Structures are given as C-alpha cells and as structure tokens.
Amino acid sequence: MNVNGRRYRTIWLKETDHTVVQIINQLALPHAFEIIDLRSVEDVRRAIKDMYVRGAGLIGAAAAYGMYLAALEAGEGTFEADILRSAAILKNTRPTASNLAWAVDRMLIKMVPGTSVEEIRLVAQAIADEDADSCRRIGLHGAEIIKTIAAKKKGEAVNILTHCNAGWLAFVDYGSALSPLYAAHDSGVKVHVWVDETRPRNQGASLTAWELGRHGVPHDLIPDNAGGHLMQHGMVDMVITGADRVTRCGDAANKIGTYLKAVASKENNVPFYVALPSSTFDFNMRDGLKEIPIEERDAAEVRYISGKTKSGAIETVQICPDSTSARNWGFDVTPARYITGLISEQGICEASEQGILGLYPGGTRT
Amino acid sequence: MNVNGRRYRTIWLKETDHTVVQIINQLALPHAFEIIDLRSVEDVRRAIKDMYVRGAGLIGAAAAYGMYLAALEAGEGTFEADILRSAAILKNTRPTASNLAWAVDRMLIKMVPGTSVEEIRLVAQAIADEDADSCRRIGLHGAEIIKTIAAKKKGEAVNILTHCNAGWLAFVDYGSALSPLYAAHDSGVKVHVWVDETRPRNQGASLTAWELGRHGVPHDLIPDNAGGHLMQHGMVDMVITGADRVTRCGDAANKIGTYLKAVASKENNVPFYVALPSSTFDFNMRDGLKEIPIEERDAAEVRYISGKTKSGAIETVQICPDSTSARNWGFDVTPARYITGLISEQGICEASEQGILGLYPGGTRT
Asked: How close B257 gets to chain A, by Cα (Å)?
C-alpha cells in the first residue's frame, strides 16, 4: 500500500538484516508513522498482545515471522523444546484470533529436524505473501460489484460505508473490505467512503481514515450513529465490512456494531457485503449467534479515549463519571440473511451453506 | 432530582435574590458540579447558545426566565421595544429548538402594558413548573409499562436501553425518557439501564450516566455499537428514548443513532417507546423523513473528544488524522412503524395519527 508515495506492507524483514522483523506501530497511528524492530519471540509476543499489530491476517503473519525468530533463538540441542515453547507463547497472546493458531501450526509442521533456518524463513514469507495475494484477489472480485453500481450512478461517486478497519493495516497488504475500494479507485471508478469511527477503539477514525487518506481515496469520518440516517436518505450505495469468523452457513462475526448496519441496510435495500480471505471461514460452525464466542474486553476502552492534544502530545481522557461502570463486547454476529454476498479470493458467493460450498467444495479451505 | 441527597432542578431563581437565575453548568458535567448565575438576557443567550443548558424542555424554561430578566432590564419609556429585541435575541440562539420560540412567545403575550415584573416572573415560573409536572406525569404513565415487564421477569432487573440524555438535565426536572425509570426505581421495581454513550457529543456518557448514578439507578455505559448485540441475546427488555419533534403521524426525530436502535428493536421484538411532553408534538407535519429538518453540526464534534486527564484537567483530543474531514448530522428520524408507543403526560398512545389524535382531540396541544 502507498504511504506518502512509498510502497509498504504492514510487516516485513529488514532489508539489511534478515534476522529483524519490522512492523508499522499501529498504536501510534494516525498521529505518527513509526516503524518498530522486532528482534525476538518476546518482541513479537508483546507486539501482538499489546496490539502494535492487529487484524486477522496481520496477526497470522506476525506469528509466522515470530516462529522464524524462534528458530533463530532455539538452542542446538534443545531445538524442538524451544520451538514448542515459543509456539505456545505466541498462540496465547490473543486466544480468540483464529489466524494466529493457524499460522503457528503451519510453521510448526515445516520445522522438522533438518530444515534450515533459511527454509523456515521462506515459509513465514510465503504465509505473508499468500495473505497479501488473497487480499489482492478479494479486491479484484469486489471491484466488479462497485463497477456495476458505478455504471448506474452516471459519473457520481459510489458511496460505500465501512465499519472498523479491514484495510491493509489489518492484513499484510490490500485488506479485505477496503481492497475492492482501492482496486475500484485505482481503476478510475469514483468512490467515496463513509468511515464509521468504530467506538470504542476507534479503528475507523484512527486507521481506516488514515489508510484512505494516504492512498487518496475520498472519504468522510462519521459517528457510528450516522449510518442509518445516511441510508434512509439514499446516501449509501453499498456497505462492505471484514469479518473475524464466518460459519459454513454464512453468519459473520465482526466488530461490534456491524450487525446494526446490516439490519439498517436490509431495511433500506442497501447491498451489504462481507469480504474475507479463506482463512476466516470456520467450516466447523453453523449457527454464528449460538456458536461463535464473543470476547468481552476491558471496560477502560469505553471509559477512556486517547488522541492528540493541541500541543501535539498523546493524551488519554475519561469521558464518564468516576463511578460509572461500562461493558465492552468486541464483536457481534450478523446472521447470513442480512448479508447480500461474501467476497473471498475465490470469488463472490451467497452467504449460505450452498453458496459457500459452491466456492469451497467439500467445505475445506483451499 | 436528587444530587448527592439534595433536591435540584436544572434551573431556578436564586433563593436570596429573585433577580438572579441559576443553572447547573452542563458543560462541566460529569467531572464537576457547578452552579452558574445568569443576571442578564446576554447571560441567558450565551448559556443557551454555548450549551451550558440544553434539551428541549430546559431550553424553553431558560428562555422564559430570560424574558423575565428582559423585563427587569427594559427601560421605562422603551419597554416594548426592549422586550421585543430581547425576544429576538433569545429565539435566535438555537433556531431549530421548537420549545424555545414557544416559550418566548408564551411570555410575550403576557408582557402587555400594566403587567408587573412580579407577574411576569410568575409566568416564567409557571412554564418551568409545567415542564417539570409534565415530565413527572410521563414518569407515572411510563412506569406502568416497566412494571408490566417486571412482572414477567420474576425478580430479575428489567433491562432498559436509552440513547442520548432525555433525563432531568434535558428538562426542568424528571426528564422524558428517564422519568419512567426513576418512577419505577423509586417504587421498588428492579431496573438496570444500558446507557448508549451517544457519540459525537457523548451525552449518554457524560449526562445520563451521571444522572442515573446520582439517583442510584443501576446502569452500565456501552458504546452506541453494542445495542444490537444485546438485543440479539435477550439482554434488552425495552428501549425508551426522548424526541426533539414528533409529527401528527408519529414519526419521531431524535438524536442521531436512535433510528438504528429502533430498527434493531423491531427485528428482535424489543418494545421501543418514545417519551415526550405535549410541547414536542408538531401537529403541522405528517411525514417526518421528508419534513423534519435535520441540523448538520460542526465536524469538530466528531474529530475531537473532551474528557478528564489522569491529573484531573479537562483536555480535548483529536481522534483522527489532521487531514480527515467529518460529517455530523445531529438527529435522525424514526418512522412511526418502528415505535411501539408514545408516552406523554396525557398518557400512552400508538405512534399513529389515530393514536395521537386519541390523546389530543382536534390535533392541538392541551
């Protein structure tokens, strides 16, 4: 992705020293663009745990690179024990993120005796490359939907609403929900994005707005409360969000608040799409509302907000009375019946078991 | 209403000096409880304009007291001209608030030659008293709905979601949406309130949470994004909001985001009530979506948030990139078909022309 004219991924090996993993510090965005060096499994653990990196695809890639650093750190006589300990440490950083365990396991099965550190590095890079390529292909498929809408708008911008950040910052590159927007914009289609600020962590305001700005895609930040009003007045042509987990029947868990937008979309006949790489499907689950576990996070995320003061310092402020308690569920589930279609790197399908199995015969990831 | 055991209204005449109007400074809440003296029409103008006082009923009462101060200020030979100038100044503070012009006009028709300043003061006090009494009666009617739900919950708390602040801080006392909760709570019904923080101005986090806390009503602050998830999981028994304007057919304009909660309520069979004093009805309008003007406010309210730092100072922080533009519609319209019922001081009715005309024969305020 472009940042002020230069091409970036969210994670990479340092060009001059392949034993160092570099990441963009997402906690500093949007007020500072910082690159951080990760030199050990402990560095990677802290980066995932404290959310210097976040987003399904990026967490997976970070864990893969973390396992490569684990191989560098492992003692000659204790290689297997050291590697397994590192794997457990990385998996435990964010237990609900499915990509994390998936990436660690995919590294482990290649880290058999006799495999060189160089070969292990290539596996981690392949996981990152694959994530970027899946997202690129999601963009190509999704852009076709945007182009179809654009054809009816007679030169007016296609207004697309998105919630949270499912952009390149959540993956290695391109993103899931935002990839179609970038592809459409780059091919000359006029798009305009309504960016939900996405309380409580404000990933829309801090990450999506920043991404779109760097890439030059027209957009406006709105409170999460505004989307229904915009839909009622014909100011939203489509909604695209990412997903944290999608069941084999098409129910989608995503950032809290997604469901409210999906319900309003259906009421107002606004197409509602969910974009995801294959790794986000959970073919073992059917009923998302009953089966997908919803993480409850720290109430402090609701009670406090961070930002930049007039003097340029980063400050945290409390927005409620001292004695007020808060609750903070991280995700909600949008039942399949509200979803117009799913966009994966394999193509576009109906959010239903039949639709999904059409893209994934046998109900397995490719 | 009770604040730390003492009874308050939001506006009153100073006990020791009836030429001074006193208000609670709502800009300082929830971090400080400050009382401000208003000694002139200019003081009242600034208090309304800069939102030291806000909320339909309270703005009306403030304007009424402002007209009383206008009578005190008016010159003997220029009484009529001075009064009319003050009326225009007060009406222009917030042109979309219907209670404001209504209260000023109601004062004007009593300020005929020969009326004493004492009599004028009594009219202003009557307007304030009437606002408080209407809200008290809304509470009695609405509490019956809560009691009916409580009877089915077998001792468990009735979970009520509310959006924005339609409590006593928005009126002279009691409030509209919160009045039924206070009445139910005071009569021993177990209630628990989900307080939408209500971005962008956070009236839920700063005012509703504070009010409920002072009165001892159990509550939790939630992001505006959470309500749908709670409804899907049976954790909301009813929704009550206030309204800024309700048409003769029952369409209700209220704080932006109300519509999303109303749509989700209908999807999940959660009763959705709108509470309002008679003064909020607009019998001249039918189709709220087409006819009710929606104010667009300063984008800065979306881009910045204020709160209390760790050191206790009040600070404003920017939550998005420097270059990000934002849009900020203050209200949305919930069509009558999503509203289970309207609660006014006259009683409870269906949100329809027939229902409303049943409470207001002839389509006029009482």
From this structure: 4
